[in-house]
Amino acid sequence: MTNTSRIATGLRALAMLAGCDKAPEGQVVAVVNGEEITMQELNAELGNAELPEGAAQNEMRNAALDNVVNRRLLAEVARESGVDSSPEYVVRRRQLEEALLVQMLAQQTARDLKQPTAAQINEFVSSNPQMFANRTVYAVDQIRFRTPANNSYIAALEPAKTMAEVVATLNRLGIRFERGNVQIDSASLPADMYRQVASVGTREPFVVPGSGGVTVSQILESRAAPVPQNQVNAVATNMLQQLDVAKQLDARIKAAKAEAGIDYQSGFAAPKAASTEGGAAKAAMQTPAKAAE
Predict the structure, then answer these.
(1) Are 285 and 106 in contact, with CB atoms under 8 Å apart?
(2) SS3 call for 28
(3) I need a surface site. Which of 83, 136, 174, 201 has the fewest CB within 10 A?
(4) Is the pLDDT score of 18 beyond 90?
(5) 117 Rama sector, left if φ>0, alpha if ψ -120 to 50, beta otherwise
(6) CA-to-CA distance for 122 and 125, rounded, in angstroms?
(7) What phi-psi label fits residue 176: left (phi over 0), alpha (psi between -120 and 50 degrees) or beta?
């Protein structure tokens, strides 16, 4: 055990002694080694779970409390083992803390927004048929690779009419890639990209360069998945609110960057390509690990 861990363990032992007279009552539902677990923490653990009635409710509640106790105890074991002093922990803790703050800022922003009008909803639905009446789920054979420094790969891939030809071209160019089957929901596609996908269909692969790399996809099959008419307004309202929140947060990012002092080491800088509307906010709400998936 490191000196830091010994000191931390000693301080926790003193805290435990000082907290021995604490009793689980009122809003305190349990005390673990002198540390209180409150009703608010228990409710957060339960989240939005629908509690059953009677004895089953108590059982579910107590199971959630046991999860909190177990996590609290394991966290103590981790600290005693020096996990909290490792560089990786420090970095991950900051990532998770910042992601939580941004997520809660988004929730706060959403609460302050006005509900979209019926006209706005109708316009959004008619402008994005791929999200509603024409929503389609595609089974796709997909190849992914990092964006090469030289854009000559685009012209080299143009003649490829099959995925086998794509593979042969990438191998010839020495471009490493990953390949696998994925599902693509047309609701996640911008309207112009949906039109491209729909026009190509299953005939041949199509190339989509992006900020995170390049994908080459070929549709294997598709199935219609329209949003039920009685759910269209609710789905459209939710999507419009998400877009509005992203716009609001993007505006805050731009304002914060304008006032901030940001110095980059040579070779490191913000990307030259402009992000899509709301893109900066969406990226900021992801942890680095999630964004890299």
Answers:
(1) yes
(2) strand
(3) 174
(4) no
(5) beta
(6) 5
(7) beta
Name the residue with higher pLDDT: 271 or 225: 225
Average predicted confidence (pLDDT) for the chain: 87
- Amino acid (one-letter) located at 290: K
The 10s digit of each residue's pLDDT in 79-104 is 999 999 999 999 999 999 999 999 99
Judge whether 224 and 133 are in contact, CB under 8 Å. Answer: no
Mutual orientation of helices 39-46 and 55-80 as an angle, nearest 10°? 100
The closest alpha carbon to 291, from 276, 279, 278, belongs to: 279
pTM summary value: 0.69
Beta strands in the chain (DSSP E): 28-32, 35-38, 136-145, 178-185, 206-210, 213-224
Cβ atoms of 202 and 220 closer than 8 Å: yes
DSSP E strand stretches across 14-79: 28-32, 35-38
Phi-psi category of 174—alpha, beta or left, where left has phi over 0 and alpha has psi -120 to 50? left
Per-residue exposure over 94-109, b if at least 16 CB sit within 10 Å of its own CB, e if not: eeeeebeebeebbeeb
What torsion, rounded to 10 degrees, do the Cα atoms 6, 9, 10, 16 define?
A: -170
Chain segment 199-239, per-residue pLDDT in tens: 888 889 999 988 779 999 999 999 999 999 999 999 999 99
Biggest CA–CA distance in the chain, Å, is 77
Which tens digit of pLDDT belongs to each residue from 162-176? 999 999 999 999 999
Give yes or no for a contact between 256 and 197, defined as CB atoms under 8 angstroms apart: no
DSSP state of 217: E
Find out whether 158 and 138 touch, Cβ atoms under 8 Å. Answer: no
